[in-house]
Amino acid sequence: MSEERAAMRAGWQRAYALLGALSCEGLDAERMEWVRALPPLAERLPPAPDLDALAADHYALFGHEVFPFAGVFMGETGLVGEGAAAGVLRAAYGVVGVPVPEDPSVDHLGQGLRCLAILLDAEREGRAHADEVDVRTLERWQQRVLDEALLPWMPPLMAALAVQPASLWTRVIEMAIGVLAQHRAQLAGLPQVTGSLAAAARGVEAVLDDPRTGLVKVAEALVTPIRSGVYLARRDVETVARRCELPCGFGARHGMLERLMRSAAEYDQLPRVLDELTRLLHARDDAYAGLEREPGLGPHVPAWRTRVKGSLRLVARLREAASEAGEAGEAG
Amino acid sequence: MSDFASRVSEFLGALLRLPPTEPAPARSQGPTNAAGQALPGFARSERDPVKLTEVQHPDGRMSRYPPPEVWDDWVEWDAKAWPRKVPRRYTLVPTICFNCESACGLLAYVDKETFEIRKFEGNPVHPGSRGRNCAKGPATHNQTYDPERILHPLKRVGERGAGQWKRVSWEEALEDIGAKMRESRQQRRDGIMYHVGRPGEDHYTNRCISAWGVDGHNSHTNICSASARVGYALWGGGDRPSPDYANARTILLISSHLETGHYFNPHAQRIIEGKLDGAKLIVMDPRLSNTASRADVWLPTWPGSESTVLLAVARHLIMRRTYDREFVRRWVNWEQFLAEAPGVPDMPELPVGEGTFEDFERCLERLYGEFTFERAAAEAQVPIDRIEAMAAAVEDAGSRLSAHNWRAASIGNLGGWQVTRCLFLLNVLTGSVGTRGGTAFNNWNKFVPPAYKQPPAFEAWNELHLPHEWPLAHFEMSFLLPHFLAEGRGTIDVYFTRVYNPMWINPDGFMWLEALRDPEKIGLHVALTPTWNETAWFADYVLPMGHAGERHDVMSQETHAGQWIGFRQPVRRTAMERAGKPVKFTYEANPGEVWEEAEFWVELSGRMDPDGSLGVRQWFESPVRPGELVSQDEYWGWTFEHGVPGLPEAAAAEGLTPLQYMRKYGCFEVMRENYVPYEKHVDAEGAEVDAQGRVERGGKVVGVVVDGHACAGFETPSRKLELFSPTMAQWGWNERDYVIPWPLPSHVSPANIDRGAGNMILLPNFRLPTLIHTRSANAKWLYEISHNNPVWMHPEDATRIGVRSGELVTVVTETGWFVDKVWVTEGIKPGIVAMSHHLGRWRLQDGAGGSPGMTALAHLDEDGDGGHRLKLLQGGHAWKTFDPDTSRIWWKDVGVHQNLTHGVHPDPVSGGHCWLQKAIDVRRAAPGEKHGDVFVDTKKSMEIYKQWYALTRSAVDHSPDGTRRPLWLKRPLRPVRASFDLPAHPFGRKDEP
Q1: Looking at the partner chain, which of B4, B16, B25 has a beta carbon nearest the beta carbon of A30?
Q2: Which DSSP symbol is given to B780?
Q3: pLDDT of amino acid A1
Q4: I want to staple B850 with a disulfide (CB 3.0 to 4.6 A). Which of B72, B842, B843, B857 is the partner?
Q5: Kind and range of the H or E element at B105?
Q6: pTM of the predicted model, to two decimals?
Q7: B49 CA: distance to closest CA in chain A (Å)
């Protein structure tokens, strides 16, 4: 292996270790020194960085707004630990004989990054000992982790972060996604789109075909990324609510969205809310379009765009129904 | 390559240029002492944590805590490092909380390497608090590491109040103050005054004052509990109640203040236990307090009507004969009543008959028959069904009625001591005195060890403390000190204020300002305080004294029906000594040069009397090192060895000395339960029994014969519970309304409050449960929770005045006015406005005198003719220190200092300041009146003082035996008998020289 390739791998390994720790645990005094020395991260530090304030921002982003877990993005009901990614990561940790971390859950992005750091380090050792079988095995597992556990949900994660306030923490995830994409692009073979993502998703608009569907079901479908194609953060719902001058309350995302739509219906503002949601969905689709050209990420994007189209159809049907109801009401 | 990809490449390139290994974690450099100067640091342990003990106790004790056997070497994960697992190693040092008077146990986690304190948690083996604390306990950490704390002794260099200070050594301060004390003591025995706000200990300082041979103790009791104390003392000798809430069937509180503020933790947890066990909770309070909101029956009574309501409940029991007749027959001084009550002015004709108990019962019916539910409901302005529900619950309680009154109505109203008399009448009628689930007296449930080498009683009586006009006061007339000084009753040579901020916490603060500034009245003012305060600003010396984890004291409180003793200790010092690092004086271990009074008094007394010629020094000398001053180890070693029953044996069982035991556990349970001690048998053999059945031995009454058996009885002259008070009758209060439990008209009764003219009642004596008088302003967590004190106002009144929540109102009192925001709430009775005290701190200079986040910068204008105008220039704001939290202050409103506008209201019997104020007007603030503005005319202050002074009945005119005060009543420090004699030249009398 050339020195250049070895250095590249060393860079990925160190990047995964650092970014994994930062995304899981945040900053401490030691990591602060590293961050200061890395311009893409350092430029996002405030003028007088304060660890407590940065920890609060870390919590606000990853504990309140955007949950960086594969299960949240890829799970059928959007729960932490749900879906195939967690299983892949557990197996990968097992391959290198490292206990599976569970806190935070193994499907946390940071745990995936750490797993790759360990795999790369093991691969380096394998190369040092000229153990070609091990090296091939470890490369294959890197590929699996990338294709099945991490890269598939990076497009909606990146699009969701793009509308959050720019911070050190959004930059940490951007860098992580970039390294993942570069890493995958350098591995052999074309990126594989994981089955769960490639599978023709049950059209989200199908929820409207069930006569029992109410606003609760609609809200649940829209906040579940694997169904709607987008990750809606609390801030997204609040932004729509603020634009429409309607309350959305507090609590879980689906509850906020449901309350927003319910109060919109009560105040005859549902069309306006649906228009705002349409605008949001189009914006996300535009973001996805931009990612299609990024090596490593591109193959995973079409599946998300397909889902966004389904969401747009769902919103359009609701919009139509709301308009009809409004007209009927006026006529009555 | 896209921009994004190139950014990633840049990142990876930079990463590869960094050294291959992560920087080594910062390691501790050994002991540090960061408090007041930096955030504390903690070392990383090399070993993993020990498991917590998990025990399911049948009572209210904690179930998970560090086992005491490993307190000296405890490792746990650093919670702030989560989710990383960073082990920290501590020595756990028990101490006693100092943030109210309930003396809960704290456990300080002291880093074994840096000796910095990580946190304070509850002490699981403490019998009173049982491992629990309220918010004020853990906030001790805030006070310890407060960026604004005073770290060194300071001496004034400019005019008093000019804010110019220089740092001096302890030696310099001791020499100067000691010399002035010596000079005073050589001339007189009433020139040194120690004025204590929060005692926080049980005998040490009183012993020191006695050793100085002066009448020098002054307290804050008369702005706190004086009236309740009189009410209880007249009944049974003990001057405060000790309810057994956990076992009660009915809990009756006329003091939300205490249960939500003072004894919040030990009492609240037992009230909860009682309630979980089915007890009914009844609260009388015009304000919907935290406790009232949890009550089964809330009676928002009009202030001053409480006695009538209580007597209506008493009537219910009397008329239905559902009271404990046997208890009343055995323990009430009914025979004395039948003999002495007839003929008392205003007393109706009583059916005394043949003098039998049945005759007495008929007298009760005759006396209290007029207190119907209808009358009570009308006076209290509450629905009658609530009074009926209360009566039913009291009747149902039997001997398990836990009742409590401490401040609230008793200290609020003129004659408030009768509220307590009427409340305790219910305990007497239900036979719930000292029973399981009943109400005891504090001295049964509080343990005070004897002092090491007790000095004799002094020969002095300080007229500034207990003047002849208030012979029954409980205790010193402390809040009138500036008025006494103004009218020329005396002067002070050396004045110590100790954790006390009278200018801010007392009524009529500008009178204090005038007194404190006058060196002719107060020669030397030494403020012993852990924090800056408004009073210290006008001191000559500001000497930093420690918080809870920085001092030695013993303390016990009546938290439940048992007895225990707690040991407060300086936790850094103890941790250092455990580690083999000797410490001579506590200031060597405390932050900066912060000291503790216990050592300070010893060293100061040594300077006061260096050669022993005053006879003072002998009381401060070591028992084992002749001629040298006693150390804390020697003092407490003696106390625990000789003064605490059972402790030497418990210590020996663990191979420890008693002092080592107390340093390890911080407390000792002296008695698990103590019910009905008055029934205890007294050996009457060889003793004399007088006509009243009192058992006398050696000239002292030691018991009373009841039904042929000699029992301990109560600490009253009759040794019985005194429904009829011969003391009141003998000392000039010989009317029905004073000699038996009876309602007295309050100064804020409806007759004195013309609501049609806009009058209201200002209820200023509640507080939010996170406040600690002055010292909450040095506890950031507490101030974040509560930092302002808006005016509570009922919606009806708000509509009448035309204000909404957040708008400004001007409250006009008898002596001035203030401006505050209003909070409209149905949690206050119409006609009453309420404001929490303990808020509204201010400072006169930026950068000194208080922290910018918790005090307002103020300007004070004085017109030289009594007019004082305080204007707030800037509210609380963020400021930069080593503590990042100070730059996160998000509030501006730090409250309004209402007490400045309160005229003094000394009750003529108890001497307590009757806190309720007549608000002459409450109106929307006028243009130009700003939030926090205060105006006071101290000429009016003196007028109000004189109006209340006129209500007094002096011992000079009424003493039955030529004494100043009934000998049997308590006095914090007791002089020799001869000093009780009336003065030859009473102040204010014609023959005064």
Answers
A1: B25
A2: H
A3: 66
A4: B843
A5: strand B105-111
A6: 0.77
A7: 18
